Every structure is written in C-alpha cells, then in structure tokens.
Amino acid sequence: MKTPSLNLQAWLAALVPMIGFAQAPDAAHNSFNPATLQLFTTGAPYPGEYETTPFIAPAGPLRVCAANPRYFADASGRPVYLTGSHTWQSLQNGILSKTSLIFPGKDWPQATPESQGINSARLRVALDYLARSLAEHGGADTVFIVRNGYAIWQGPECDREFQIFSATKSFTSTMLGLLIDDGKVTLDTFAKKFEPALAEQYPRVMLRHFATMTSGYDSAGGSYEFDAQGRGDSWNPGPPAPPIFPPGTKFRYWDDAMSQFGQVLTKAAGQPLDQLFKSRIAEPIGMTRWRWISNDTPTGRVLCWTGGLRTSSRELARFGHLFLNRGSWDGKQLVSFSWVDQATTVRVPPTTPNDALPRSRGAGVYGFNWWVNGIKPDGQHLWPGAPPRTYYANGLHNNVCIVVPEWRMVIARTNGARKDGSVGTPANVDEIWSEFFSRLAEAIMP
C-alpha cells in the first residue's frame, strides 16, 4: 500500500509554537506514514495540558483539518491534536511518541534560547530580577534552565554542589513510587506492617499520610520549630511519641514524620534508599554527581531521608527532566507515569487545616512530597505568576527543582546558608518566584 504523503512544511511551521518542536521542519522530509503513529485525539486542545488518555489510533490517513489547519483530521473527521513536546526527528523516523523530548547523555545538549522559543533578552530581564531579589540570599548564579531537553541557561555556579535539604523529600517519595510500581506496597499500606513500633500509637497511619505530611507522627525529643505544646522537630525517625493529631486531619510539615517515612520505606524496599535510587533512577538518567548523607539518631545511624541529598543544579535538573517526561527517560519508563501524575498534583485539599507552624502551609498546594502551584485556602495560587501545572521540590535555603509542564521547562537552583550562617531563604520567597515567572512568561515566544 502506498504511504499517504502530506506536504507538512508550511503546516508544521505554523504548528511549532503550539506544540514546541525542538527543531524546525526540514523541506527534505515532508512525508510520513500515519499508520505508524499513535496519537491522542480531542475535539479541542486542553489548555496547559499536553497529554490525555487513553491512546487511540487515528482512523485512516491523516489530512490537514479543514476547520483548523494547525491540526490533522483522521478519516472520520476528528481533529487530531499532536500533544506534548515532539521533535521533527520523531516525524522523520515515522513515529510520534510521548517520550520525544531530547535527553542528555553525559552532558546536556546546549541551545540558544531563541531556538527553543525563548526571547533571550527577556529571559535575561527575568533572571536579573531574580538575582536582585535574592542578592542577600545566594543570588542566581547557580540557576540552570532546560527547555525541551536543551540547556538554554547555565549560571556560572551551576556545578557547585550543595546539600539541598528538604528538596530531598521529593526523592524519598519517588522511592515510594518505585515500591508501588514493584507491587511491594500501596498508598493505603499501613506503616505498622513494616515498623512494628508504630502499631500501638499509630495503627491507622498509611503511607499516603506520610507522603502528604498528614500523619500526625512525632518522635520523642526535638531541637527546632517548637509548637505551643513544646514539641520540637528533628531528623530522628524514633522512638515514637504520642500522636500530634489523628492521621489525615491536619497538615503539619514535620521532619520527624518524614524520617519515620524513610525508615518504613527502607524496610519495605529491603535495601537502603540511596542504593535503590542509584540503580533505578540516578544511573539511568546519568545523574553522577550526588551523595545522600547519613546522620546519627537515637535509633542509630540512618540515611537522612528528610534532607540529606547533596548535588548541583546541573545534576538536579536531570531529576526534574525525568518528571517533566512523566517518569520516562529516552524511551524507558523508570517510574510509572501514574505515580508522577499523582505525586505532582494536589493531594492535600485546601479544606485540610494547616497546623499553626510557619512551614505548615500545604493545604491546597502539596502533593506527595512535591509542592504544587495549586489553590490555597485563600483562593489564590501559590505562585500566581507561574503556569498552573508548575510543581517543585523545595528545600532550606531555597534549593528548588521546578518543573513547568506547560512550557516544557525545568529550572534548578541550589544554594547554601548566608554568609552569617542564617537561613538563605527570604521571607517573601513565594512572591519573588511568582514575579519571576510573570517576567519569564514575557520571554515565551508566540
């Protein structure tokens, strides 16, 4: 059967801004076989989203849609929406897949901002604003920005390694995703199954409660962020103290709980989580410059599951790029897309009360140990200036790994304490990032 042929050069040139081709169409390659493609179809694009389910095969030869020349239509007349960030190379190869972002090898491929649809002058305006706003808190020299898999901005200090503190939590919860994929646990697995010490005081705490900071778990002792009852936080998984509140009834950002979560996951995995991360995530994505430190606790020396990862912005961006592509890396699914989707969308409803502590502000904006640009109890987005699907790993001193699906972009920034040893996170950090994104939006080329 003769392969149906379409002259796509003009049509794809018009389509590039909409779906973000990483490379321009080549006049020498202007045909492909729609029978080899697997596409999503929809009556109209869903704003800000690039994929929907299920996959369906288009019926018959594809033609330019009469109603909208920026679409194909299949034989039944349905518009066919080319979703995601797809490269011209994937069309040349006769296949369009949801894993068609560029992936780095040993090094990130580099590109000019303009080649990836970013106005470099306006990008610089946004970055200059960020540098000024964070001047007393580490500046912007470590910022590393990737679009479509290409490094379009590399700060002069992007290879400097820092302990990223609570951004580590997003790595720990990813280990939960792997264990769920492996069938070893579910979100509703009771933690006491793997840690008998929890049976008496925490019999109803599930893994989902730990991943959402709603477990009410507390360890004995503590050394910082004391509450009105005199309970202090720590990096100690145990021994267990009486519950702060019943599971699922409040949001309390609490390192004691995260530490116990890591201990439970370690027992479920049957191996240290840094080894699981290395073999299943770090090595496949080429993340080589990292270290997960341990700390001494009353229950012994343990991996610091709540804040012990050390790496650079350049390396951290690989982790973000994996999540941008919904857990797939260069055609291989490392962690299920269903886990990525669940982890990076709101799992703590805005109706859940936040506990009365400065860090406990997750209602409406917290997933499974990822912060999400959701709707806070006051009805406002966490970062009004950022696209609504933005999510990020976040640690002390404003260590962040920000993923922006709408823009096919990852932004990583690492940082340490201020010169005087104080916390390197400004009080108005959310306002700063929101305004940065408002300015960055002006750099996105139509």
List strands and helices in order, with pairings.
Layout: H1 9-19, E1 40-41, E2 63-64, E3 72-73, E4 79-81, H2 88-92, H3 120-133, E5 144-147, E6 150-154, E7 162-163, H4 168-181, H5 207-211, H6 255-269, H7 273-285, E8 290-292, E9 294-297, E10 300-303, E11 309-311, H8 313-324, E12 328-329, E13 332-333, H9 337-343, E14 371-372, E15 391-395, E16 399-404, E17 409-413, H10 429-441
Antiparallel strand pairs: 1-4, 2-3, 3-4, 5-6, 5-17, 7-11, 8-11, 9-10, 12-13, 14-15, 15-16, 16-17
Helix pairs in contact: 3-10, 4-6, 4-7
Description:
The protein is built from 10 helices and 17 strands. The longest helix is centred in the middle third of the chain and has 15 residues. The strands form 5 sheets. Strands 6-5-17-16-15-14 form a 6-stranded antiparallel sheet, with helices on one face. The relative contact order is 0.13. Strand 3 and strand 4 form a beta hairpin. It folds into 2 domains: 100 residues, no CATH class; 280 residues, DD-peptidase/beta-lactamase superfamily (Beta-lactamase, 3-Layer(aba) Sandwich), CATH 3.40.710. Helix content is 24%, strand content 13%. By secondary structure, it is of the alpha+beta class. The N terminus is likely disordered.
